[in-house]
Amino acid sequence: MEKFIGKPVSFDQIDVTDGFWKEKQELFYKVTIKSVYDRFEETGRFEALKFNWKEGMPNKPHIFWESDVTKWIEGAAYFLQKKRDPELETKVDELVERMVNTQDENGYLNAYFTVVEPDARFTRRTDHELYCAGHLVEGAIAYAKATGKTAMLQVAEKYIDLIDRVFRIDHSAKFDTPGHEEIELALMKLYDYTKEERYKLLAEYFINTRGTSNRDETYSFTDQEHMQSHLPVRKQFTAEGHSVRALYLYSGMADLALRNKEEELFQVCKELFSNIVNKRMYITGGIGSTHRGESFTFDYDLPEYTAYNETCASIALAMFCRRMWLIEPNGIYADCAEKALYNTVLSGVSLSGDSFFYENPLAVDPDRNIFNDSRPQGLKEHLPIMERVKVFDCSCCPPNLLRVVGSIADYMYSTAEDVIFAHCFMDAAGTVWLQDKAISLVQKTKYPYEGRIEITTQTDGTYTLALRIPAWAKKADITINGEEISAPVKDGYAYCKRSWKTGDKVSLNLEMEIKVLEANPKVVDLCGRAAVTRGPLVYCAESADNNYELRDARISRSGEYTTIQDSICKAEIPVITTSASVRDGFDQLYRDKSATRHTVPLKLIPYFARANRGKTELCTWFLLED
C-alpha cells in the first residue's frame, strides 16, 4: 500500500449505537457537558468573555481561559452534531455572542491581554495566545458543522488573518513560533474545511520556523527543548519537553507531511513515534514522566508514584496516531491509540462523569500523600492527587475529554484507494465513502471486554476490508458468512478483498488472553515487576479490594487468572481474579531470615476504573515470581 493516500472517516458519518462507547457518550451528554459548563461558569471563565474585569474584582482572567471555553464548545458541538439540543445551543450562542461583541476590529480576541495587559499582546511567547487561537478555530469549525451557524467561524477567521499578518507577513510580533503548539494542527483543519491556501501556509510557517529563531524565548526554568525549539523540526528524533505541546506539534507535522506528501517529515514523525512507544511511554499509554515542565525526561525513565501522564498528553498521542495511520497503514499506530484511549485517557474521568484527573500515576501510597500534604509547600515532594476533582486551576483536561468522547468514532475507519481500514472497534453504524461510492457498514461488538467483532455490509461493491489484528492478540480468526477464511496479513491488518453483497457478515474473533508483562530491565523503577493486561486494557489493584501490602504481592505467569463480571460504583465491569503471595509480617525493620510467604486472593480492575471509591492504595506493577 502506498503512503500519503489515506483519507479519514469522520465521526459525523458514523453513529455509535451500543456498547462501551455508547454508555460513555450517554454519560457525557447527560452529566459531563453540564458539569464542566457549571464549573467554568462558577470560576469566571465564561464571564471573562464579556471583557469587563477590573482590578479588585474576583476571577481575574487567565491567559489560557479562552482555550477552556472553546474546547467546551467544540465538545458540545460534537454531541449537537448527532442530536440538536436547543438549551445547549443557547448556551453556546451566548458565548459566541460575547466573542462577537468583544473582538477587536483588527480581529484580536483574548480576555487577559485585553483587560489585564493590553500592551503585552504578542510579546511573550511563553503565554498562550496562539494556543487559545487554535482551540478557537477547532471549536468554530465543529459548531459550524453541527448547526450551520458561522458567527464563531467568522470570529476565528478574522483572528487568524490578524495572526497571519503579524507573524508570517509583517513579522511584527516579538517572537516567531507558538510557545504552546496547537494552532498548527488547527490551521490544517481550517485549511481542509475552507480550502483557503493561506491557512496551510501559516501552519507551514510555524512548523518550518520552529527551532530556527533567535527571538523565541522560553520559561526561566527550562531550555528550548521544553517547547520543542532546540532544533528545526526535521532534525528532531527524540521526544523532548512538555509532552502535550510535543504531541500537538507532531500532529501538525504529520498533517503537513500527509498534505505535502513529504517523505522526510514523515520519517521524522516515525522516529519520534518510535522513541515514544519503545522508550518513553507507560504501559497505559501515558506520556510525560515528570511534573517539572510536564515533560518527557530520558529513555526508560518511567517512575510509578510521580508519573505525570497528563490526560491531555495521552489524548494528543492518540491524535498523532490517527494522523500517522493516514500516511502509512500500520497497526502499530492503532495499537498505541487504543492503549492510550482505554487506559490513561479514560482514567482522567470518574465513572460518574463529573470529576477528573489531570495526572495519572501507576502507583499511589496514601501514607506518602498524607505526609507530603502535611509539609510546608516548599518541602513537598510532587505526588499526584488521590481523588478526582470537579475543576482545576488549569482545567484543560475536562473539556478535552469531552471532545474525545464526543468524536470517538473518528478512530474507527480510514480509506485508501479501494481499501477500508478498520482501526478501532466499537458498536456503530455508518457510511464510508470509497472512491465516490457510499459503503454502509454496521459493526457489532462488546469490545474492549470481548474480542468478537462483527461487521455487516449494507452495500454491494468490490473493495478490500482491512481488519486490524492487535499486537496483543496471539490468535485471530476471521469468518465471512460463517466460513473461515485465510486473509493475507500485512503490518497488522488482515486484507479481505471480495465482491461484497448486502448482508455479508465478517466476524473477527480475537483471543483475549490475560497476559503478564514485564518491563525492560532498563526501567529501573520496574525491575523484577510485572503488570497484567487483557486485550487493550491494563489492570491494577486497589487496597479497597485487597487488604494487605500490595507492593509486597508476588504474581506468577503460571497462576490461574479468571475474568468475572463485577460492579464498581454501579458500573458493570469485567475484573480479573487470581492469587498472589505475600510475606508474613515481622516486627523488626530488617532481618536476616528468609521470609515465610502465604497465598492471598488478588482482585484486579481496569486501570481506567481506579480511584472511584475514595482514597486507596494503587498498584499496577507487581513482583514477579518466575
TrEMBL record:
<dbReference type="Pfam" id="PF20737">
    <property type="entry name" value="Glyco_hydro127C"/>
</dbReference>
<dbReference type="GO" id="GO:0005975">
    <property type="term" value="P:carbohydrate metabolic process"/>
</dbReference>
<dbReference type="InterPro" id="IPR049046">
    <property type="entry name" value="Beta-AFase-like_GH127_middle"/>
</dbReference>
<feature type="domain" description="Non-reducing end beta-L-arabinofuranosidase-like GH127 catalytic">
    <location>
        <begin position="14"/>
        <end position="408"/>
    </location>
</feature>
<dbReference type="InterPro" id="IPR012341">
    <property type="entry name" value="6hp_glycosidase-like_sf"/>
</dbReference>
<dbReference type="InterPro" id="IPR012878">
    <property type="entry name" value="Beta-AFase-like_GH127_cat"/>
</dbReference>
<feature type="domain" description="Non-reducing end beta-L-arabinofuranosidase-like GH127 C-terminal">
    <location>
        <begin position="515"/>
        <end position="622"/>
    </location>
</feature>
<dbReference type="InterPro" id="IPR049174">
    <property type="entry name" value="Beta-AFase-like"/>
</dbReference>
<dbReference type="GO" id="GO:0016787">
    <property type="term" value="F:hydrolase activity"/>
</dbReference>
<protein>
    <submittedName>
        <fullName>Glycoside hydrolase family 127 protein</fullName>
    </submittedName>
</protein>
<dbReference type="InterPro" id="IPR049049">
    <property type="entry name" value="Beta-AFase-like_GH127_C"/>
</dbReference>
<feature type="domain" description="Non-reducing end beta-L-arabinofuranosidase-like GH127 middle">
    <location>
        <begin position="423"/>
        <end position="512"/>
    </location>
</feature>
<dbReference type="Pfam" id="PF07944">
    <property type="entry name" value="Beta-AFase-like_GH127_cat"/>
</dbReference>
<dbReference type="InterPro" id="IPR008928">
    <property type="entry name" value="6-hairpin_glycosidase_sf"/>
</dbReference>
<keyword id="KW-0378">Hydrolase</keyword>
<dbReference type="Pfam" id="PF20736">
    <property type="entry name" value="Glyco_hydro127M"/>
</dbReference>
